[in-house]
Amino acid sequence: MPLEIVLHLPIQEDYAIGNLSVQIGDQIIEGKILRKKQARQQYDDAIAQGKTAVLAEENEMKQDSIQLLIGNLLPKQSATLNFQFYNVLEIEGGAYCFKMPVYYFPKYECEKYAYDYHFQIEIFSDIPINYVSYPTHGEVIKMTNDSELFLIKIVKEGKSVLCLEKNLIIYYRTQQIEHVSLYCQESNAYPNQIALMISMIPQMIEQIANEEDLVLLENDIPQPQDIQFEPLGDEIYIFLVDRSITMEGEKIQLSKQALIIFLKSLPLNSSFEIISFGELCESISNYEGLLNDSTNLNYAVDKVNKFKANILGKNLINPLQKAIEGLITTKNKKIFLLTDGKDNRRQQII
């Protein structure tokens, strides 16, 4: 008697789903995006005709998972599921970070359903890689290094998924990780259109030299101070943050995320100031500046997390004047402005 298999696939909020296919014997069922009712109708029609069909849809009860149905699977038949997720890698400790959550590997209550697992990741880079940290008991099985492409393949496998207790985490750095990169992509499905992405990892100080030798470490947690930098003079970093109503929604959230990344990238023993503004402006330290230590950093991050786009008006001149003239210091000032730019007094601002 044919079976209907129900799988619940976890998915993180900031991941996008790419290709989805299911292979049953020699047959490959390729997924395509349809409206929900249309997809359900096609699935039901195929099942009624005795055909094997697949339906993937968002789980209405759990927003962090996808429900996958495989209909009319015969007893003793096996199915292989292939799907792709897309995401931009996070930056942690001055390194790119890829995390495979342990809950991607289902664990069943009964031990007789335990299964082998095989985790494999391939890192492709057009810039030389000089640091890789991989999971405990993992293995680097392949490295390719030529003038155009750098490939590192890492494998971790085991006889029982029940032994997996922690997320599988990969860190890596390239020799030019602090450089700004611009990526473009074309697709035949969207003629005359180009998708662009700019990648920037904020570094407030200049790196001395790039290590050319590749360092491979097991279960290492990278730290920003692992990178050697050229010490500069006494600096104060001033962040001007637009909190006017035009920044409401995604704009203020992106500004807060960017600001926190900047704060955590500041060199030790430097100083910083945050001035938020609308028509009026306010400082988190009464325009005196804060020394970059753990106490002040935690204080600033807490303040930033509470920022809302709720200040009336918008006047870019006020915070600029406060930063340039109102903050009295002998330190070198570096000013960063986070705004949507919606101020008509552009000539005055310049």
TrEMBL record:
Pfam family, one: VIT
PROSITE patterns in UniProt: VIT
UniProt-recorded name of the protein: VIT domain-containing protein
Record-annotated VIT domain positions: 1-87
